[in-house]
Amino acid sequence: MSAKIVTGVITLLMATTGLASAQDVNAPPAYGSTSLEAGFQPDPHTIPVQAGGAISANQLDEACFGYITHQPSYNLNYSASEYELFLSAASDADTVLVVNAPDGSWHCNDDAPGQGLNAGISFSDPQSGLYNIWVGSLDFGGGYEPAMLHMSELGFSSENIFSRSPNALLSPNADSLVLGAGFAEDPRVIPIQAGGDIDGGRATNGQCWGVISEAPDVWLDYSASDAFDLYLSMESASDTTMMVLAPDGNWLCDDDTAGNLNPGIHITSPQSGRYAIWGGRFSEGALADASLFVSELGFGGKVDIAAILGTDLPGLYGSETLVAGFAPDPHTIVMQAGGEVDIFEAVGQECRGFTTTAPSYELTYQAGDLDLYISAYSDRDTTLVVNMPDGSWRCDDDSAGSLNPGLHFNEPVSGQYRVWVGTYSEGGEAEAALHVSELGFGGEFEFESGLDYSLPATAGSVSLASGFMPDPYEVDLGAGGTHSAEYAADAHCRGYVAEAPTFELDYTASELALYISAVSETDTTLVINAPDGSWVCNDDNDGFNPGVIFDQPMSGVYDIWVGTYFRDEGVSARMSISELGFPASEED
To answer: For 2, 8, 24, 533, which has the most beta carbons within 10 A of its beta carbon?
Structure first.
C-alpha cells in the first residue's frame, strides 16, 4: 500500500518512538476526532482549526517545512475502500500539513497543486486506520491562524470561511430603503436575522466585532441634510453587533452603545449615498431575531435628549451645592431665559418652550425631610426643564402662577439637578430669576438694571496723558456685582457688575493705542463706557482674563466696570492701563 506523492509531498517511513518528545501521536488531538467510512457524506468533511505551533516540522525530515504543535490537530479514523483520500487545509496564512498514516509513515506538504499556498496530501490507495493530522503554518511566530481542515474522497478543497468577506454589492438579506432627510414614519423598522459565518473582525482588520453574513441585511440609500443626524440601531434578545459600510468606504462598527447589549451608531454629519448595514452576533451561534431601526431622532427612534440638551455641559450661570435647611431661602440666581433649542423636540412629554443647549444652572442638593421647590420668575412667559439625579426629566410651564413655571418635589432625592429656564415662545430672550427653595415657589423679583456712570467710581480715578509713566498703570480693585451687564449695557456684554463704575480714567490721547485689561483668579469681564458714550465689552482676551484695545483712542473719560462672569461680588482683581500692550503675564 503506498501514498500518492504530489509536488511538495514527502513520505517518510520513520519510527514514531524517536519523535515522542516532539510530535506525539498518542496525545489527545486539539480539535477532536471523527470516524469516516468510504463513501461518507457530506463530502468534504470539514473542521475549523487553528494552524501553527512552536515545533519545527523540519526535525521530521529536512524536506518538511513549517511549525506545528506536539499534539495532532485532528484524528481521522478511516475505513477505506476503492476511493482515494484527500486531506487539505485552507487559510489566509501559508499552511503546511503533517500526517502520520496508519502504518506509522509520515507525510508532509506545503503547497498542494492548484491550491495556492494551501497544503494538501492525497492517498491513492489509502489504508484503513488512524490518521494523525497536524495543520501547521509555514512561518514561525505568526500566531495561530484560523484554518479549515478538509477530508474528502473527491479532491482538495480550498474553501475557507475565514477568508470570506462581507460583500456590499450582494442583494440585502432583508430590505432596501430609499430615504431623504426629514423622512416621515420615523423610525423605520426592519426585521432581520442577525449573525452569520463571517468573522467581522477579520473582515475589517479588527475594527468591528461579531459574526455576520456575506450579504448585507439592509441597503439604505440616504439623501442627507445638515439639519439631521442619522441613527442606526438594533434591538434583540441576543447580544448583537452592527457593521456599516458608509458611502465613503469607511467601516462604522458598534457593539453596545444603544444599551442592553444592543448596538447603535450615531452619525452626526451623514453623507448622501448608500449605507450597507450588517446585523451581527457578538459570538457564534444560530441567527438571532432582531429589529433594525433607521431614525433621525435617536436610537430606536427615541429622541437622543443628551445630544440636544447638553447634560454634560456646565451651567451657564454657575452651580451650587445646597444642603437641606439651607439659608437664605430662597436661593436666587439671575439669568437669561430662552434660546434656540425646542424643548418639546428634545424631551417630548408635556414639555414646552425654547432654551439653550447647556443647562442654565446646576444644583447639587443634599436632601433631608423638607420638600424642594424650583421655580422661575420673569416678565415673560417662561418654562422649566429639570434633569433629575436619576436621569429622568421634569417640565413645567405655569405652575408658579402668572405664566411662571414651578416644580414641587415632595420627596426630593439627593444628587444633581440640571435646570434649564426657557421662554414659551420662540425668538428673543428674557431676564429671569431662578428660585430654589424648601418653603414654596419663589415670588416676584426686582431686577437691578442700568449702570450709572455719573456715580463715583468705587476704586478711584486717574488722569493720564499719552506717554504716561510708569506704563502700565495698575490698580488693585474689587470686581463683580449684582447687575447683569448684558441688560445694563449692551447685548454683547457679559457678566455681573456694580451699578457704579469700578474705575474712571480721564485720558488725553495721541496716535498711540490704549490697552485696558484685568487679571483675576476667577473669570472676569470688562465693560467700558467710552468718551463718545458707546459701550465696549470683553470677556476672555487671555484665558479667562478680559482685555480691550482702542486702536484710535479718544480723549475724554472712560468709565470702567470690572465684572465677574457669574453673579459674584467682592472678587479681587488687578486692572492695567497701558499704551505698550497687555501685560506680559496675559500674553504668555
So the answer is: 8
